[in-house]
């Protein structure tokens, strides 16, 4: 964290209470990419939660408003909801997620403020991608609470979708469309296409169909889509996949600029990322190697 502040992510070892339910539906908010398939969704009952000091503390008063790529974000407080620590944007308390009969996430808590960044680490199957999908609002945790500026994100999933830019393992590009045409599908009003293309060194490829791009070029296009989303919360699942050293430098510049505007980002990674003054949350993974044998499609 910045000088004078500390970051203490926390992952508890307490298990949560699980309750079976006949409600197996999963509502996906518009505007977010869903890269996994939840075969079963079971709601769990909230259990008594102690106050866990899991946080990065920074006081920054602005986050970007949806006007242009270069402007800071707005920090207006919610009209209702429980109070959080000053400047807290994203807070999770005792998140538990089951997959089948296995506990994937066990009591995960975190708190991030404007300008903060967190790296999620851990072995394959530890729940990194699952945690990102929960934070994105793509699925509900089986127990625990998740809030943005003190208000549960599940009170209004559409509103949360507007503040999230999520990138999964898949680049999710339409092969018959050009780079620019793909990006236009996700650009919000006021976003600068030229700035996003330049930031990811895509100007020479702007009119090239996505099917002709290399793996690294596709990844840079997906990252440019994040820039155009005008979202204060970036959730990046292995953002450096397929990138060479020059492209990783571009990614680092984009992440630094996002944080300088008061944005928040959480990224999973197996390799070092150019991300200074960041928190780290290590997810230990399953102790039983058979825990995720039935879910080979979800590596993280």
From TrEMBL:
Taxonomic superkingdom = Bacteria
Keyword Translocase attributed: yes
Gene Ontology biological-process entries: cytochrome complex assembly
**Record-annotated ABC transporter domain positions:** 90-293
Asked if the keyword Transit peptide belongs to this entry, the reply reads no
Q: Which UniProt keywords apply?
A: ATP-binding, Cytochrome c-type biogenesis, Membrane, Nucleotide-binding, Translocase, Transport
Please name the GO terms that the record assigns under molecular function: ATP binding; ATP hydrolysis activity; transmembrane transporter activity
Region of interest called Disordered, as start-end residue ranges on this chain? 29-50
Know the name of this protein? Answer: Heme ABC exporter ATP-binding protein CcmA
User: From what organism does this protein derive?
Assistant: Acetobacter syzygii
């Amino acid at each position: 964290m910045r000088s004078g502040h500390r970051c203490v992510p926390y992952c508890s070892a307490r298990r949560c209470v699980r309750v079976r339910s006949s409600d197996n539906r999963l509502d996906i908010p518009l505007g977010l990419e869903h890269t996994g398939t939840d075969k079963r969704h079971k709601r769990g009952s909230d259990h008594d939660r102690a106050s866990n000091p899991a946080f990065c503390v920074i006081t920054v008063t602005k986050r970007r408003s949806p006007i242009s790529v270069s402007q800071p974000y707005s920090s207006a407080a919610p009209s209702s909801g429980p109070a959080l620590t000053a400047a807290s944007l994203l807070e999770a308390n005792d998140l538990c997620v089951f997959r089948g009969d296995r506990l994937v996430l066990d009591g995960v808590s975190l708190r991030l403020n404007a300008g903060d960044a967190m790296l999620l680490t851990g072995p394959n199957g530890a729940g990194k991608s699952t945690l990102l999908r929960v934070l994105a609002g793509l699925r509900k945790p089986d127990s625990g609470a998740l809030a943005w500026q003190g208000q549960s994100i599940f009170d209004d999933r559409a509103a949360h979708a507007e503040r999230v830019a999520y990138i999964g393992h898949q680049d999710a590009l339409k092969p018959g469309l050009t780079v620019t045409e793909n990006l236009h599908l996700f650009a919000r009003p006021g976003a600068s296409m030229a700035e996003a293309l330049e930031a990811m060194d895509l100007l020479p490829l702007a009119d090239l169909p996505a099917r002709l791009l290399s793996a690294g070029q596709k990844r840079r296009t997906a990252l440019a889509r994040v820039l155009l989303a005008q979202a204060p919360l970036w959730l990046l699942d292995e953002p450096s996949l397929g990138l060479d050293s020059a492209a990783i430098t571009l990614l680092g510049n984009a992440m630094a600029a996002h944080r300088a505007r008061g944005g928040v980002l959480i990224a999973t990674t197996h390799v070092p990322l150019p991300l200074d003054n960041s928190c780290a949350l290590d997810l230990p993974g399953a102790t039983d190697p058979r825990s995720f044998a039935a879910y080979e499609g979800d590596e993280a």
